[in-house]
Amino acid sequence: MAGMFIDVQVDDAVAQDRDLSKKLVDVCAVDIFAQSEDGALQIVDKNLDECVLCDLCIQAAPDGKVRVIKLYES
Amino acid sequence: MRFYEYESKALFAKHSLPMGERAVVKTKEEARAAAEKIGGPVVVKSQVLSGGRMKAGAVQFADTPDEAAEKFEHVLPIVVNGEKARSILIESKSKLVQEYFVSVTWDGRRKLPVLLFSDMGGIDIEEVAESHPEHLSRTHFSTFLPLTPRLAKEAVGKTGVTGNDLNRLTPIVFELAKLFLEYDLTLAEINPIGKLENGRFIVLDGHVDMEAEARGKHAGLLKELGIGDDETRQARPPTPFELEGARLNAVDHRGVAGNVVEFDGDLGLIIGAGGGSLTLFDAVRNHGGKPANYCEIGGNPSVGKVCNLTKLILSKPGVQKIAVMMNVVSNTRVDMVARGVIKGCIEAGKDPGEVITIFRIPGSWEEEGFKILAKHGVEFCDRSVSMYEAAGRAVAKLKAS
Q: Which of B41, B48, B64, B66 has its CA 20 to 30 A from that of B258?
């Protein structure tokens, strides 16, 4: 479920990549990403609205594979 | 945060200020034993935070241990300005030939500490300032430059005190000024300092107020004095609404969204930034509005923290609408506050466009914030609208609803 203001979409290939997932967990200051036991990426819904729009997750992944969507612009 | 007299004196004792023998007691038996140990006449003093003890009869004198026990029973139940005694201080009674006054506090206009000294102690200092201004000296000093005994000597000397008295009073006054700076105090006062028949000086009564924000820095001292973390030392006990505000602020370390004070109005306030809270609160009142609360937001509070504060304020009985107003912000993000208040309104079951009278937070990320507000139909403005005008709009909107 998306947040009230922000949604984050991650391509499946990135979400299944253990190292890239770890990188996303590390760069996010507001804990929007988490890793399950098998290393797969999870989105922490309750933290989505805390996104500070720093773009570090977008920069950490290949172009276009992580998308931060401002729901108030749609 | 005000200290009780016995706590102030424990602090003075750490800095070797001269005081009579004393003991804090909680029972009649302890009072008798303390007076016996001290020997001779004693003073029996109620330990309350407010002034006016003497007038209320909460300071008594006793010549014997039995009389001290009797006076203990008399003083303990006395309520001073609505406050019950926490304990009783038994202290040796000294024969005095003169009383002096010394206080260190902040001069808000000069933005400097000021040392006040008078050779007419033991009475209201305002009365001395009014009737005998030549007996009161005011000496400002720097918080950056080293503090020297010369400053204390000047302060005492200005009132005409000379010779041995000047030399003996100077270290007491100097030590009090040092204490003021070292412990981030907003008030350090001794009234009176008594001159004994043998020419020595002694601290008879003292009051200390510490800046509330400095509690963490001086946690060790507060622990040593037995002051608990939960002791707010406010003029009245916090209400459940205020306690919940403090709890919400404490559970999330990010920024400030708290310092909530409850009032009985109908306009909830989410206010802050560089003195903005007080300015905006006063502006609302000047426009005839009735604030339901005071609060402070600042730093970079999380969306969740602002959301919880908004829900708390909206949950208060009598609150019809809220106003979200701040001074120009630099590090607080307008968009994050906008998200927080809108989320709070929606989670409280209210329409943000209806319940928020005005959103006036100019500053960092304001364009992003304004997009969010526009999306939810909230009236907002930028810095071209003054805080005073924004408060007026909020009050007018509430009255018109």
A: B48
Instruction: Kindly list the residues from chain B whose CB atom is less than 8 angstroms away from the CB atom of residue A52.
Output: 333, 336
Instruction: Give the class (CATH, top level) of A6-73.
Output: alpha beta
Domain ranges, residue B66: 21-93
Closest CA to B339 of A34, A28, A71, A32: A71
DSSP state of B133: G
Q: Predicted ipTM? A: 0.93
Predicted confidence (pLDDT) at residue A1 exceeds the cutoff of 70: no
Q: Which residue of A has its CA nearest to B333?
A: A52
- Shared domain check, B248 and B226: no
What is the rounded (10 degree) CA torsion for B113, B119, B124, B126?
Answer: -60
Q: Where are chain A's structural domains?
A: 6-73
Q: What is the pLDDT of residues B309-362, one digit of tens each?
A: 999 999 999 999 999 999 888 889 999 999 999 999 999 999 999 999 999 999
Q: Which A-chain residues 52-71 have CB contacts (< 8 A) with chain B?
A: 52-53, 70
Q: Which residue in A has a C-alpha nearest to residue B344's C-alpha?
A: A4
Q: What are phi and psi of A6, to 5 degrees?
A: -130, 140
pLDDT for A21-33, tens place per residue?
999 999 999 999 9
C-alpha–C-alpha distance, residues A8 and B379, integer Å: 28
Q: Is B283 in a helix, a strand, or coil?
A: helix
Among B303, B368, B375, select the one facing A49 at the smallest CB separation. B303
Prediction pTM value: 0.65
